[in-house]
């Protein structure tokens, strides 16, 4: 942990290279990042959207200074993690599914279903797979895809899916029923730094800014 003042005292010089999952819009991080940029007009904050493995590799090779990623994907012996948001797993069902009128559902209720998951290289795939295994079954995964394809497949009634609740904020959910999983399965999103890399003051301020933006 570190301590920083609420009033920004940097002169705005320098640069920060930030690698992030495609989560800025659904987790409402665009406005805080723009506010930070406005605070430091002379600071070059470059942002690139990547998947988890590329973020981790880029941080280790000093291609990026900081990353935004899910806690489940990192080794906390190698990375410092500063929480930005917390989310929970939900089931996505077509509107005519037998469970579509329930207010909550357990993963064991879905053990005989056919699933479409996020792509295998994502942390969400790993979390969903592990959650099903912890519930006592191996899910029948017929397809992996991006969110847009997942939503279309669920609407068509071909398969069901599991996603994090806030991932859906940027998408039209018409034709889909979103049901909370019980017991709750949570995931934390945060900003990370590689412990072997030096922590500059402007990076420290960005970490403080984002981890206190909610």
Automatic annotation (TrEMBL):
SUPFAM superfamilies: Periplasmic binding protein-like II. CDD domains: PBP2_LTTR_substrate. GO terms for cellular component: cytosol. InterPro entries: HTH-type_LysR_regulators, LysR_subst-bd. Residues 13-210 form the LysR substrate-binding domain. It holds the Pfam family LysR_substrate. One of its GO terms (biological process) is regulation of DNA-templated transcription. This is LysR substrate-binding domain-containing protein. It comes from Turicibacter sanguinis.
